[in-house]
Structures are given as structure tokens and as C-alpha cells.
Fold:
Amino acid sequence: MSDPVNLIANWLMTILTNWGVPPSWITVILSAIGVVALASVVLILDIFLVWVERKIVARFQDRLGPNRLGPFGLFQPIADVIKLLIKEDITPDNADKFLFNLSPIIALATVIMLWAVVPLAPTIFGSDINVGVLYIIAIGSIGTLGIIIAGWASNNKFALIGAFRTVAQMVSYEVPMVVSILITVILSRSMGINTIVQSQTVWYIILAPVAAIIFLISSQAELGRAPFDISEAESEIVAGFHIEYTGMKFGLFYAGELLHALTLGGFFASFFLGGWRGWGAETYPILGVVYFFIKAFFMYWVIMWIKYSFPRVRIDQMLNLNWKFLTPLALAALILTALLDKLFQNSSHSIYVLAMFVGNLILLYIAYLIIGSYARAERKRVADPDKIQVSFPVKSSGSLVEPRSSSEGASV
Structure:
């Protein structure tokens, strides 16, 4: 029972072989059963995440959270699902009904598809393809397309604005995210996710802390959670791209967001925290599953912590952070990693790890100095309002007069 998943697969294979099923059909049948089983486990976890998020957020905000339905409010997610199922399904007039109904399915299905390449244990995974990193990037782009379709097909200007913001945000933040993943590819010399996990005798968060920080920030933005929830922005554009969705269609978007957060936590664990690696994981693969989900749920908690601790940033601030800071920092970290890997590839493992760690610390310190310099300049600019001029003419007594400086009482 060290590997129950493959034990069950071998048992089913024996039964199908005894029934005379052709080997090619057996492969298809077992693959289909595996897909259904993995998707079912992921969707059950998604329902559980509703309760987890509400309880943890309640602790952040000094509240009790769900505590009425079932012990500790565990049945509250079931009540939520029933409520969404019985709510009226409304489709706006003049909306593109096919795309309008398709986009929630895309939003959830793409997240489930990402789990196909997540290694839960050394022998428990959907598919161990050698281009798993490319698969993640491709499927993630399809998820962004689903949100854009939702905003356009709703025939609502606020939903369309939310979709436009999605283009500006998610596409932009995919650049530093991909670059940070490439750093793990350099360290492991493979694009297969299971190989990346197996190569982490030392967690990559130690060898590449800069890449780990960039991946965490970029994934938070790509997920569309605070402080980067510009695509929804309830206080600005009335819930954004999914404003016209009701009932279970809205529930699919919400479920996709929660599951996407856990999925990114799982990817962070796989890329930087050793994934399923731990004591006894190679001998007892079921332990690897436990280690993986402990790390994934810890990162899910970090993502929630960030979401409920920071206010939303303006879209110009968000894009400046990406293009003027994160992307250059990610490229610098990529170049530094490639150089250090080439210089110390023949050194002992301890020297290699130390060189990577010290190099990243130096890069972090330089980034800290740049941020500090920019912050001091910005504080000085805000603290000296006399230099701010009115940039438009002032209308007085039917004529245009020259704008006055702030020292004359016309400050802005």
C-alpha cells in the first residue's frame, strides 16, 4: 500500500486484460478514469477551499466565520452550492449567448487542466511530459482568454472595462513569471516539472530567492487577487468582467479563482519548495502527497494573507511595478543565475549553493537600494507642493486667465 494509486491502476489493468480488452483500449480507459478521478479530487478540494478561505479570513479580521451549518461550519460550502444552483439564471439582452455561457467553463476547466502536470508524488501524477513548463504557460493563457470573452460577450461596458484591464494586467505579469520559472529550468536543466522537483536536493527558494519572490508577486497579479484585483475592482467598475453572471455561472468563476490560488501554491511548492520531496517520500509515495499539499496549502495561506492585508493599487502603479521593476529584476536574476551556474558548475555542491545564495542576496540588496531611492524622491516631490503648477487655464468672468502657481492659492 506504499503506492495505492498505481496499485489500483494495476488491478484495473489486470481485470481489463482478463476480459480480453485490447491493450490500446486499456490505456485509453485507464487514462479516462485517471482524468475523472483527478478532476473529482480537485473539485472536492475546491468546495473545501470555500470554508478554508472564510475561516482564515475571519481570523485575520477578528471574526468567527462560518459556525452554524455543521461542526465548525463545515457544511456552509454545501449550502452555498445549493444556493447558487437554485438561483435564477439570467442572460443579458443582445449578449453573445454561446460565448457568454462558455467563458465560465473555460475559466474553471483551464485551472483543472493545470493539475495534469502537477507531480503529487514521485509516481503519482497526471502526465510527466518533458515540456511541463510550456504546458503551464499555454494553459494559463487560455484562462486569461476566458475572462476576456466573459467581458466582451456580456454586452456591458463595465464588464468590458474589466476585460480590458485583464489584458493589461495578466498578460503583463506573465512576463516576469515566465522568466522566474526559466531560472528553475536553468538550475534543474529540465522543463519537466517532476524532474525539477527531483533535482531539488536543496530547495530552489534558497538557490534563487529573487525568482521565488518574483513568482509569488506575479502569480498574485496573474490570479487577479488584491492588491492586484483590478480586473474586478468592485468599488470602481461594479465587480468587473463577471458583473452580468448569476447563479452557478458566477459560482464557476468563483470556484476557478479559489482553485487557481491553490494551484499556484502547488506550483510554487513544486518550483521552489521541493514539491513532494520529504522524508520517506520516495519509499512511501503517499507521504509525498501529504508533503506536497502541506506546502501548497501553506502558500495558499500566504496568498490569502497578502490579499486581505494590502489595499488595491492603481492600474498605473501596478503596470509601473511590473514593467519598470519586476521585469528588469527578473531578467537580471536570469542573467545572474546563468552566469553563476556556468562559473560554479564544476565546483562542489556546497560552494555552488553558497554562490547562488550570496549572488541573489546582493541582487536583492541592489533592488532594495533602487526602491529606497525612488521612495525618497517620491516623498520629496509630494512634500514640496510649491513646485506643482496648474496645467489648465482657469475661466473667470467669461475670459481665460493665466493659471496661478500654488503659492498664489491655485494649488492642485
Remarks:
- The first helix runs from residue 4 to 18.
